[in-house]
Amino acid sequence: MDGQPVVGWNRDPEGPDQYRYWNGTEWTGHATASDRGDHRTIMFGGSYGGWHHAWYRKILRNTVVFHAMAWFDCSVPLTRGHLRRFMQPREQRTLDQIWALRDAQ
Question: What order do you get walking across the sheet with 27-36 strand by strand?
Fold first, then answer.
């Protein structure tokens, strides 16, 4: 385990504004961050998960299941807006780690 990067976003040695996501076994995502005054931008790409999982696409092809999940996400108290986190890959949900790495510099 020694010598392996920390799970999460890490600096990419190829450039000062580039970052890679390590999931514990492989590099899965990459991002480029830019900071221009009061405008901060992250360009993200190369992730797995979410809509990329074949089983997930098959389940949501069923329109009844899709609409039931959408109704839960929009209308049911305590779940309102929280189900969408299952649709985004972990790389997208943790993009704030990049700003923490940049600010710690």
Answer: 8-11, 18-22, 27-36, 39-45
Higher local confidence (pLDDT), 70 or 7: 7
- Residue 8 in contact with residue 28, Cβ under 8 Å? no
Judge if 30 and 16 occupy the same domain. yes
For 104, the domain range is 1-47+93-105
Give how many domains the chain has, as a whole number.
2
If one counts every other C-beta atom within 10 angstroms of the C-beta of residue 71, the result is: 11
Identify residue 53 by its one-letter amino acid code. Answer: H
| CA 104 – CA 102 distance, rounded (Å) | 5
